[in-house]
Please model this.
Amino acid sequence: MHINYIPYNKIPRKRGLSVQNGYNMALSEMGYNGADGFEKWRNNERSILQSICVGYGWKIKHKEKSKGSLAVDKFKAEKDKLQADRDKLNADHAELKRHKDNLDSIINERVEKRTRIIADNATAVVEQKCIEYQAKFETQFALNKSDLKAFVKTKEDVPIPPVKPKEIEPEY
Model:
């Protein structure tokens, strides 16, 4: 967390403003005198913030201290170790990618196979239903030719009205 603050102090003066910003004077007005006044003030503020965070159930992550500078041999050893870890991770990644691609191809093959089976089954079911309906139709509606003629009108039975040609007006 970063906190911005403006240190100020209130001291009655004969000339100028009675409120001025000033780091050392603000600390001394709060009772933090001496060379370590800022450290005392900062530690006090941190303890107040920590008690507020604990009250809300928040955890505080403290700033990590740097390692400082390493000797050349230690730096090279650390660099080599990190490079070896990176190479191992890259090899693991490549192996996992090959395994994933293999699984993807297996899944695609199985999906295509199931799709073909479903399509074949659907076609067989439709064909079976067509055969059943055709047999049902033939048994229920079997009519002989004489019964059929009674229901069907021929061309001679239906009069065709004469068609008058339309008169077309010329366009100018």
